[in-house]
Design goal:
single chain; mainly alpha; two-stranded antiparallel sheet
Length: 80
């Protein structure tokens, strides 16, 4: 009769090898995720701040990056 024994000794954890040699710790991954989410939030917030400009001379709606009206070339005044 053959007896099999089960070893209860813990094996040392194997070291994870990265093919590039670059490894991020879990806290570094969390910090990177927070920074990326912050940048995404700022981008969305800035886009919300950009409003369509309406020409005071002719009333045409213009994109926020324009400095002169597309229809009558009058200067667009930005009110903040």
């Amino acid at each position: 009769m053959i007896q099999q024994t089960l070893s209860l000794e813990e094996q040392p954890p194997k070291k994870v090898e990265s093919p590039t040699g670059f490894y991020l710790q879990p806290w570094q991954k969390g910090l990177l995720l927070i920074v990326l989410l912050g940048l995404l939030y700022l981008r969305i917030w800035r886009r919300k701040q950009a409003k369509i400009q309406i020409c005071s001379h002719c009333g045409k709606k213009n994109p926020p990056h324009q400095s002169n009206c597309q229809k009558c070339a009058a200067p667009l005044m930005r009110l903040h």
